[in-house]
Every structure is written in C-alpha cells, then in structure tokens.
Here is the input.
Amino acid sequence: MKHLRQLEDQSVYILREAYKHFNNLAMLWSMGKDSTVLLWLARKAFFGHVPFPLLHVDTSYKIPAMIEYRDRLAREWRLNLVVGQNKEALAAGMNHTMGRVVCCTALKTNGLKQLLEHKGYTGVILGVRADEEGTRAKERYFSPRDKHGDWDFRDQPPELWDQYKTTFPPGTHIRIHPLLDWTEINIWEYIKLENIPFIDLYLDKGEGIRYRSLGCAPCTTPIKSTAKTVDEIIEELRHTTVAERSGRAQDEGRGMELLRKDGYM
Amino acid sequence: MTLIETKPSENLNIVIVGHVDHGKSTLLGRLYADTDSLPDGKLEKVQAICKQQGKDFEYAFLFDAFLEEQEQGITIDTARTFFMWKGRQYIIIDAPGHKEFLKNMISGAARAEAALLLIDALEGVKEQSKKHGYLLSLLGVRQFAVVVNKMDLVGYRQDVFEGIEKEYREFLGQFKAVPSQFIPVSAKLGDNIANRSKQMPWYTGATVLETLGGFQKEAARSEQPLRMPVQDVYKFDARRIITGRIAAGRLKVGDHLVFSPSNKRANIRTVEAFNIEPQPAEGQAGQSIGVTLDDQIFVERGEIASHQEHLPSVSTAFRANLFWLGKRPLEKERKYLLRVATKEVDCEVASIHRIIDTMDLAQQQGSNTVNKNQVAELTLRTKTPVAFDLSASFEATGRFVLVDEYDIAGGGIITELVHDDQEFLREEARRRDFAWVKGEVTVEDRAQQYGHRAAVVLITGGRHTGKSFLARKLEGRLVADGRHAYLLDGENLRRGLDADLNEEERGQTTEMARRYGEVARLLTDTGLIVVSTTNPFGLAYQEAAQAIRTLVHPAPVIAVHMSKTEEEPPPNTDVVLSGPTDFDGATARIIDELKRRGVLAQAIGAKPVFQYSI
Ligand SMILES: Nc1nc2c(ncn2[C@@H]2O[C@H](COP(=O)(O)OP(=O)(O)O)[C@@H](O)[C@H]2O)c(=O)[nH]1
Here is the structure.
C-alpha cells in the first residue's frame, strides 16, 4: 500500500503543477481503467473537484456499455464532459477495414487534434503508462508537441527532479502524463484500495473471457481469463507474461510507433 | 507461461549509466532475462529476427522500441522498463551514454534513487565514465555501484579489475563519492549478474542483483526539519487549502508554520484529503498534501513553509554548481528564469567563477560563457528574495533549474549563501514580524472591507520631475474612487519621528530609509495604499527604494520612475514615465498597474492572481 501512496503523491504533484501552469487545460478520458484512475487522482489532487474539462474522442465504434458508464459518472461526479468526433471521416465511411493505422489516425489522432485545435487547449493530461508499450516508455511527464501535434522523441527537453516543462511557444501544446510510473498491476491495486468504480467488461462473467485493455469494439479482443474480481485480476497479472495490449490490433508491427509520432495518445 | 515474482511491495528507480558501448543495454537485457521478466516469446522473437537478418543476437535489441534506433545502433532516450526481483519492482531508466544524449542521461538520473555505472574492462575508465560519475554526485544520486563489464574479454583477470577499481575510486574520492560496490561481470555471458561467476572465484562480493537488493528506499527525509514549498492555494469550496509536497520533515494539526520569505505565520487547522477516512492529522516527507490555517494569511506559490526553529535561508544571491544543457551557451549578465522548488523568479548570472572539466576536475577560470554539457561554478542573483537551503543539508530546496526561453536548459545545486546588502534589514523585518502583535482583524478582513489590498506606490526619479505632484494627484484619484489611500511625505517624518537625529545623521540614507520603511510598513498593515516619493533621499533614491521594499515586504511595491528625458530606470521599475508628463495619463497607468497586480482586484480571495513585487 505504501508504494501506491508514493505513486499517488507523485501523480497528484504533477496534476497540481499542470493546473497551476496551464490556463487552458483538459484531461482525456477513455473510460478505460487507466484514465479512470487518472480522473480519480484529479479528484484527490483537487479535493473532490475536477477543475478542467474531460475530453472523450468518440470513434463511434466504442462498446455501448462504455458510453453508459461515461454518462453515469459524468452525472454523479459533476464532470464537465466534452465529446469530440471526426464527423467528416465518419461521414466518408471510415472504419477499421480501411486499415487499422489509417482508421486510428483518422478517428482518434485526427479526432483528438481537431478537438484540441477547436478548443485551443494548451495542456492535455493523458493516462499513458511507461510499461504499456515501447514508445510510451520514452515519454516525459511533460511532453511537448509541435504545431502539427507531432512528437519529436529524439529531441526531448530535459526533465529534472520535480521541474517540468511548462512554457512553450505559441501554437504548440504540452501532453502531461501523471501515470507514467504506474504499472498495470498498480492500477488494479489502486482501484481496489480506493474502491474506484470501473466497467465490468474487465471481468469474466462466466464465459471464461474478459477484456484486459479496452478500445474500439472491432479492434479489441477479449483474453481468456476466469478473473471475476479485482483480486483475481491482480493475481492473474502477477503471473502472466503476455503483453497487456496484445488484444489491441493497432499495436501490431510498427503500428504504435508510427501512430504516436503523429500525435496519437 | 513463466512464473514471475509475487507481490511487488515497492518500486525502486534505477539508472544505468556509463560510456557508450560499455554494455548498458546488454546488462539490462540480461537482468530481464535472468529474472524471468520478459514477456512470453519476446526473447525468441528477437532472436528469430536476428537470424533472419543474419545478425548476431544482442540483448540490447530487446529494448529497441524505435526503428531509428536499430538503424543507429544506439539507444536514444530515457526508457523506463520494469522487472521484479525479491519483492521489489525495479524501474530501470536505460540511460544511454552517447555524448549527444547527456540531456537524457541527466533526466533519467535526476529521477533515480540508485545507479549502476558501467566500465568496460578492456577499454578502462573513459571520459563518459568520469563525467557520469561526477554528474551522479551533482544530481544527488548517492547510492550507486560500479560494474566492471566485459571481464570475459580480459580473461577474467583480477589485476585488471583491481586496477580499474583503484583508478576510479581515486577519481570519485575527489568529490567524496563512495560507491557501495565494485562488481566484475560479463553482461553478455551472465557472470555475476544473477548468478555468481565460476570464472572469477577471487571475487566474493555481491552480484549485481544482490547489490540492487541492498539499495535502500529513500533516505529518512522525514527526520529532517520541515520544508514544504507551497505549490498552490485552492478555494474550490468553503475551504482555503494550501497545497504542497513535503520535501523534508513532518507536520501535524496545531503546528505553527512560518512561510519564507514573507515571514507570515499561522497554525495548521486541518489536514485535508479526499476519500481518506478518518481525516488525517499529519503529513511527512514525500506526501503531496493540503492544509488549512487558523488565520487567513495570504501566502502564495513559491514560499517555503517551515517551523520557526529551523528556517530556510533568504537572499537574492547564492553560489552554485551548475550543468548546462542549453542549445545556446549560458552567458554572464544574461537573464534567465530560476526555479527553486516551486518558486519562479527572474535571475541573472552575476559571475562565472570557473568551468569544471569533468575529465580531470581541473578548473578553468575567466570564462564569460558556459557551453552545452559543461559544468560550472557560478553566482546567481535574483530579482526578488528567494527562500532556499544549501544542497548539502536539504536536497529538494537546495537545487534549482534555469529556464532559457521555453526550455529547462540547466540545473544545479546551491553550495553557498551569498550575503546581499539587504541582509540586515531583512533580518530586522523577520524579527519584527515574528514578534508582531496582531488584533482580531486579519489582513484578509481588511481587504474584504476596503475592497482592495494594501500596497506602496513609490515614485522615484531626479529633481523637478513632478514626483510630488503626481503623488498628490494619485492620492486624490484613489480616494475619489473610494479607495483607502494616503500620501506619506518624507517631510512629515523629519520634524517628528526624526527629531532625535542631528544634521549629519539625517544625511545618512540607510537610517532615514529604515525609519521611512518602518512607517510605511505600519501603514500597509492598516490596509492602506501608501503613495510616496523618494524625495527625502535626493539622488540616493535607488538605495532608499531597495530598503523600503525589504521592510514593507511582502506588501507589493509598485515602482514608478519619472525622468525628463529617456534614462535607464532603477531595476524592478513597473511604470516608466519619461519626457513631459501627462499627469492624468500617468495616474491612469498606475491604476492599471495596481489592477494588474491584484491590489485593486475585483474578487479578492477567489483565485489568487496577486503577485508580490519584492
Ligand atoms: N564480450 C562481451 N561483450 C559485451 C559484454 N557486454 C556488452 N558487450 C557488447 O558490447 C557492445 C555494446 O553493448 P551495449 O549493451 O549496446 O552498450 P551500451 O551502448 O552501453 O548500451 C555490444 O556489441 C555487446 O554485445 C560483455 O560482457 N562481454
């Protein structure tokens, strides 16, 4: 439990730095376990309040239960929810059969970029974790994006002690990653410790399958698992060596690297 | 499916540093493989790719997340990865040793709790081995071990190992760094990584994994005196919560806190938290917390809360060791943004004492610039006083970064307090504030009542520039607007308060300014906006203005400078008026400045926009 409180202290510190330095700040919420923990940490940092909008980039292909859960929490926790959608691409019939990276770029990366541009956010908080996949391990807590929203991973600014990059040229923005040091197990341990409500798609409901990572319905497959409680998930994760995002199609090959350089989450 | 370690009860951040190609990535891959921490099939997959491309398998390939990296053959950035071993989760920051990537190595090491420093047994101690060793020490990484790698290439010879150990220990000794262990290994073949080497029976010390296991979690910072830099002040609901991360020590409900440099004081009423039952009553080093106070004092980000017995230093200057990573060189007399804990303030490089060559620690003097990747000893001077500590006593409040334009471009540790000319007055103000007897009415109450905060508007400038006229006009305008303003004219102190001074004493700016400043301090405590000129001080107005600032601190001073022709105004001037004066326009500009600084803010106490000037 002590290690969870240490992670919490660090994340809370980062959230408060973000709130102090960015006038136009927002947080991405995909309703998955990570960004929901992030949302909870914001309530910790701001003593029950969430003083910035939550953005959901809706691809229209999300599992319906996720949308219900989103709207329920938004009501109960009095959240300022902003939903964005790449309507143009959807109207033109964009879907995963046109290629996964193509579809993710259009509906998620571009959907996000449109939303950021439209609202003029200069700071965006995301629930990215270093242990999820390789490119995310290279992230900074405060990570600059250029005018096109692109990420120059080769020339990242130094990040020293608790001092983060909070100034940036006009037209660019900063991605803020308070969960960088958390692992998948930490997330579930914390959900248990704090009793955070989560979507039951993460649990096996008697069919021997559950979702380990949630994305769009067509590109996310459940894993074989009989974990029916948070404890059982934690136990399962302690013994697995299968990658967390193995059920996420866009990770295949060089998918994530190409997507993230262009400004994917 | 492999079975990995059970319960990870804690995390430890580790950085692996050393000269390029000395085997950092290989060691990391080996640690993963030997602790069964690799995802299923990852090893086989990478081996298969190597075979297909006709390359020899390298453990380093396991961590190449980017295509570019494979092309270049060097790891390029701080990558954080995890492995588990004996109830601990090790977060490894794979810091590359390529020269250009020092920035990333430093970012990694600044976050590390312990380090492994690699030296190639065949190549011996190289430039980067020294630089990294020195930087680890500068960055405050005190726990580290030296790993002498590629022992297989030197026939596992004890004398080679001992030669390197002797040479490197001597180097580290020059800045008093002491590694916990020197370990002879072959990362490639797995000697002394997880398993004791059969090739080196002469070595009986700890293996790499045993050494990692021996590293302690965080030093006992809770036992130090309290330091809590104020991060922000929230007022989302009825509570006015002061937040911050406790950098050292502990605090509890009822404690008397002193905030530096403003010297404001209050007792902790509650410790606030979300979803923690029962509500906590204390906090200790490492925690991000929030407290409410029993007195509505106005504190802001950047101040350091401590107990009265152990106050931090306050000055406008300090000496430091700094490493520079900026795209353009650091220059003497150039302005930078200084960040110490949560304080941000403009500063300039007063002098560069020497550049330190990390190769042999030789010192080179007389430079006016510090280039990228150089380390220097220098003195920084800040625009307004800051609270800080020496890094030898307090880590978090004893280090800083410099921001050049948009980027953090350098970092350093504070080695010495430099006394400035305001030291005696500042000490007087501190003693006076600590003993100040307060009534029931707080500063905040007065501000609410008056609809504005207290401040001093100080008009400086040469003779016959219209200072007194402007001061009168401003007082009139403020009062007409319903503000509580008062014109403090120096003449009025002369015959009364200063009646005990003889002619000669009256000519001494120091004492005159001290008296003047103390009167202004009393008036601001009543909640007034004091309008004044430096007329009594003649041409010594700069010195007098500085003394007044120190004494009325933390009430804001709005400095207005008047001159007949264009001239350089004194430092920290807020409103510059030169040439023939349009007094109405000048008054309007000063009122705008009072608004901008939050003195005439509409909603007092909502979100603090108020900036102290001194
Ligand atoms: N013979 C031998 N070669 C090694 C050993 N460790 C690393 N190497 C080789 O040294 C080269 C550089 O290693 P690498 O881990 O990439 O170095 P880095 O630049 O410090 O990360 C690679 O070709 C490795 O195979 C070792 O213990 N013995």
